[in-house]
Amino acid sequence: MFCRVETGFKTEFTDPEAEQVLRKIREIHPSLSEKIRWVRKLRVSWLEVDAPRDKVVYAIQAAFKNRVTDWVFTGDLLPSAAGSTGTLYDLMQESPFRPGVFHGIEKRKRLNVHDEDGLVILDAIQTILGRKGSSDRVVTGELLLLEGAKLIQSDLEWIARNWFAREQTESWSLLSEEELKRNSRFQGEQVAKYLASPQQAVRSRLLQFRSPSRPQDLPIQWERINELLRVRIPPSGSRTPLCEGDEWSFLSDMRFSSAKLNMESLTETEFQMCRHQLEHFDQKGEMRVQTLLGILPEKNRLWRSEIEGESPLKVRDDFEAAIERVAESTNTPVSVMKILEEGNETLPAYFWTGSVSLFNPALLPPNPRENGSLSELLFVGHSDQGQIRNLTFLSELKSAFRHAIQGEAVDFSIHASGRSLLHCLKGSRAHLQYGMDLQIDGIQDWFKRFFESGLSLGFIWGINPEKRDWLFRELELRGVPYLVFGTTTLTGDIRILEGGSVKAGATIQEFFSAPVAPDANPNGLLEEPIFLREEKKHPARFRNRFATEELILKPETFHASVATPVVVRPSLESWSGLMVLSDLVDQTFTGSHLDYLLRKCTAIGGQINSIQVSYLNGLQEWSKILSKVEREYGIQVSEIESVHEPEVQAHWMAIQVVAKVSDIRAVRTEELKFVQDRIYWLPGDFEQPGTRWLAGFEGRYQTGLHSAVAIESTADASKGVVDALSFALKKRKLGAEVRLQHHFPGGFFVSVSENERYAIEEEWRVLGVEFEFVGRVTSTPYLVIRNEADQVETLSIEDLL
Amino acid sequence: MSSKYRALILSAPGSRGERHFEHGLNSVGFDSEILSVADIVDYRIDLDQLCLKYKVLVVTGGNTYSSVLGGGKAFAIKMQHLFRWNLQKFAERGGLVLGVGTGFQALLQMNVFGDDFTLRINETAQSESRWVKAVPIGNRCIWLKEMGTIELPLNLRDTEFVIEPGAFVEAKGKIERLGLACLKTGDPEKIIGLCDPSGRIFGLTPHPEYFLNWTNAEDWFMNPTRAAAPGQGYAIFENAAKYCEQS
Questions:
Q1: Is the backbone of residue B101 left (phi > 0), alpha (psi -120 to 50) or beta?
Q2: Out of A16, A69, A127, whose CB is closest to B125?
Q3: What is this model's ipTM?
Q4: Which residues of B touch A69 (CB under 8 A)?
Q5: What is the pTM of this model?
Q6: Which domains does chain B have, with CATH numbers?
């Protein structure tokens, strides 16, 4: 049962809270406060309680009624608890200026916002009723009742926006005097409006959609349609449209992640793991390797290309080789789909990843009958965007799709989501090559709009007329809306008919002659990532020719995903975080993923500069999350490219976060600079916590670090370690006293000041970072080494170099 | 003084001063226990259990349940509908009840003193934090036996005591006749405390638990020789202990 409860002080009593509102307005906006002659505040609750009416009335009475001071307005539930008329008119009588001009401003907590008051009220009501209903809900708010003849709408909006409501968590609306005096706002539908969850709201619209066809009052511009039949249809809006559903995933039901299928997959363990995965999913179907290749511009190829001559293309080939090897052993055929091929090397893409999906031909509709047999054209789906998030509806739609194919009712299927009707049809020459008639008699208004604007979610099916009735029954059973709007023909023409006469038409050649694929929008494209536009600084080089982060991060640059975002340092002053997302690997993009990436990029005092995003069949949902980030954090989000490729059958997104770090040079150099600094050894390949700490992934005290010198693993200490130390000490002409009493298998020498050592050592212990005190920096240019036999050896730095 | 009498200090989300009550009651000889609303449900303390185990029930004040539905209302609903406690019956069986601040409001919302009284928000619409001087009226209230003018700290938003306008004369007469108004401030005269006809259930807006020692007073240093003396709030707890000893 839905009900609305308003409580306010009786007219005998003053309303101190309302007076307080007036005082505040007087302070902020004195001229406006002069227009307000009287004010009252009421507390409002919207309730949905799953209980009989008499019990709800009892609960409201027990919870809200204070006989001495308050009136409770509930419409007709508790007339005795209100004044003589049972409406706000009783309260208005108290106003000194009667009849007066009254206004109302109402605010309420937005859905999905934590409503503490609502929870307490709900708890109180459930306590009184003695039971908890699963659908019980309460939303709370307030109603400000104002009297002022000179108050105009903009004044009320100012009060609502600037003082009364907090727009981030509360929505508000203005109520006229008539509305205040009537009790229509207590009606169930009005109350339900503020309590309905998004899914329920969508459901109500779904029912509306299924109602019998309504009168056609939407005029169709036939000249325009006639023109459109012969020309190429431009993509709607200035941007390439984003896809609005995951309809492609209907085809590849069996999916799994290839997060580990890269170069390392050639190792035996990885190989066995992949093999296990494939065998597990082996359905005698065809595997498809979905490969998304991102290529760094030539001058910014940080990874292995510099020395080893390997390009990302080679990495991609390795990946495919690995897949083929695994597929051979599982006896599963492989087809490789390549996206962003070599020809696109100039595009500012900078990531690489891949996935594998199982492709089951049994789930595809059969090829169109070559003799051009007749099919009826049916739109199946929904005009409401909200249904994309309605998992029940999507699952019903999927189920209907499979069922229809198994029942051989569908000759062909065209994915219609996000594209206009003519756009869909123009892209389906194979199915419509002998002609088509669109019958628009009896179709509904919403469908007419889709001649030009995008369809929200659904398919266009060519159905076998013999199976028509069976299919409609199946669709109705699942609550999936459908609409017959035409047939394929053998006339060689595309015609739009209304009332038996041709309203618009074109020949097949005219209709299909214009190219249909939308171009990527060039306006939003950047030539290259932002950080490359700035003057390239020469990074500090260590003796092994790698900057620290490059060395540390090298193994991870092969693959980026939500699970393993990559943070690289393209220059000394910036971080660059990369993340690739695809629904093929069942990754749902949420704000927390982005938060994780942002945190990574703010290590060592990084300031986020911008976020750049590329879509391949991007989802609007993702775009919304990024817009929210832009809005709430003030970080600029640029869309670099948005490619629409339905054939890819997947949605991809790549995000790059660019952060500036101003003082990284001072923080981390290869020089040992300060006398009496303590030198530690941190062992380390990438997997070890020490190197992760150095890269700023974990910990807070990296700023206390004076230098980090990468060392190579060499059997001869004097060659590797001593050389590294000598180079580090050379510039400042300093020396060091060190103990080199064992073999150092790679890692770093780091120097830390005496003051910072306790904090840093403590952090290392907490994070499990292995460290070993090696020695101290001294002011004389000699390297004093205590060796394995505990013998002291003194070497001049200059001689060493 | 023996500690054979147990006191229950009832706390709720947002309540304050439980530890002060515990200290005050323990120092006059009670064996006090702080239990939350959830504890009462877990231990299944119904009216019989309450009467059996405890001699004193303290309903604490503060901002219980964020004062949604009015101060103390949600707390009162819990006691009435969840615990199903009838405090008048508890008092009839010899129990003592003290409600302080919002706890007093909760007692009023439970209609322990009749349904003609309530507390409402003060004119500033803000929480008042000051000391009030009050005079006990009548000798019915056990908690205020043999006490003169007392001064206690107040920390509450809903401080205005309201009598139902429709039954004003009758209700006022009832208070005068039965001597229910136990504490009155001076000028203008305001009721800040009320007890029931049995004298065992007592509610007041100021907080005696915050004046257990003389040094709690704002100007105690004006009279430093009394620094070691107990505060006036302490006397209220002492009266309860004396009553339990005598009964």
A1: left
A2: A16
A3: 0.92
A4: 118, 120, 162
A5: 0.47
A6: 6-246 (3.40.50.880)
